[in-house]
Each structure stands twice: as C-alpha cells, then as structure tokens.
Write a structure and sequence with these properties.
This protein has a five-stranded parallel sheet with strand order 5-4-6-7-8. About 45% of the residues lie in helices and about 20% in strands. With about 200 residues, it is an alpha/beta fold. The protein folds into two domains: about 60 residues, Multidrug-efflux Transporter Regulator, Chain: A, Domain 2, CATH 1.10.1660.10; about 120 residues, Response regulator (Rossmann fold), CATH 3.40.50.2300.
C-alpha cells in the first residue's frame, strides 16, 4: 500500500507556519518532497518525520501515529456507536470519533481535521451536503475523504452528491463491513488478515 503523504498545507498546520514557508523549505532542500503530475508538492511520512526530528519541531500525534482519524457524524447516537465500534475493530489502522450535528462536525474538523468523515446526509440545522460544501471550499480540508450515509431518501440525487465531492454513498441499513472496507480503500490502508476472515 502507498505510504501516507502530506500536503504543504498539512505541514504548515503542524509547524504553525504559512504554506509558503514549507514551499521554501522544499525548494532549499531542507524538506524532501516530490511533485504530483499536477505540480503539487507531497511529502512522505518518513521524510516529514526526518525533517521534524532534524529541526527539533514537536511531532504531532497525527504524524507520529499511522492511525487514520475517522469522524462519524450522525444524529442517531445508536447508529454512530455501531459505526464507531466497526472502525474500533481495527485499532492499529483507525481512530474513530463521534459527533451528532453538522455544526459540531465543522468545529471539530476546524481544530483537528480527520482523514475521513462518515457523514449522515439528513442532519438537524446543517445537512451533510452543506457540511461537504464547506469542507471542499477550504484548501486545508479539501482532501478529507467523505462517505455519505442516509436512512431516508436524501433530497439530493446520488449524482448530485458526487458533484459536491462525496467519495461514496451508502443507504441504511448499512453493511458495516463494506463501509469499513470502503474507508480503507479510500485511505489506501490495508486492514490486514483480520479483515479477510
């Protein structure tokens, strides 16, 4: 499986600097990076850790641990717990958290962006599509993978959900195993032998 990579925005957030500073570190050869075909700079976890240690910059827990953070956003507390437990069966891969509204989700994501959001489309105050739009507008949250779920017929077509940047959509009742497998696929992680039993 490919190693996790970090954008200049990710690294700027970890080091409390502007992305332009990170680009300068890369251009000066202090931080080893590679360019995507689109010209975006990416840094592997191994190279980021080496850089942080060399310059005695505190290593954020998100970088120190290879776990992928998953935020489950569902106003149905029982459903959120079921999904959380499913991710919890793979503690070496996932760390799951729960919140129950779109507004709370955006606040939490603003403090510490997860790698993936499992997002109920029908939520009070702010629905899942609105949450997705906000996340996709900001460079620092644009790369977050989003798996939408819904127990009711959503007011938007599945094609419309794709257009706002949702990576996958599942209807309730969920096939929890399939949902976790999809999350692993989107995050490019291997669930190991346990997932294949």
């Amino acid at each position: 499986m490919p190693e996790h990579t970090y954008t200049t925005h990710d690294i700027a957030r970890y080091c409390d600097v502007f992305p332009s500073s990170v680009i300068r570190w890369i251009n000066d050869g202090k931080l080893k990076a590679y360019a995507t075909p689109g010209g975006h700079q990416r840094v592997t976890r191994e190279n980021l850790l080496k850089f942080l240690k060399e310059f005695r910059i505190p290593i954020p827990s998100e970088v120190a641990s290879p776990q992928k953070r998953v935020l489950i956003v569902d106003d149905d507390a029982d459903m959120a717990r079921v999904i959380s437990r499913a991710f919890g069966r793979h503690p070496e891969v996932f760390k799951a958290e729960i919140c129950h509204s779109g507004v709370d989700a955006l606040i939490r994501i603003g403090h510490e962006p997860p790698h993936l959001v499992v997002l109920d489309i029908i939520l009070p105050q702010m629905d899942g599509v609105q949450v997705c739009r906000v996340l996709k507008l900001k460079p620092e949250t644009r790369a977050i993978k989003i798996v939408a779920i819904s127990g009711k017929k959503p007011p938007h077509s599945e094609k419309r959900l794709e257009e706002v940047g949702i990576d996958a959509f599942y209807r309730k009742p969920l096939d929890i195993h399939e949902l976790v497998q999809k999350a692993a696929q989107l995050l490019r992680v291997d669930l190991g032998a346990a997932a294949r039993k």
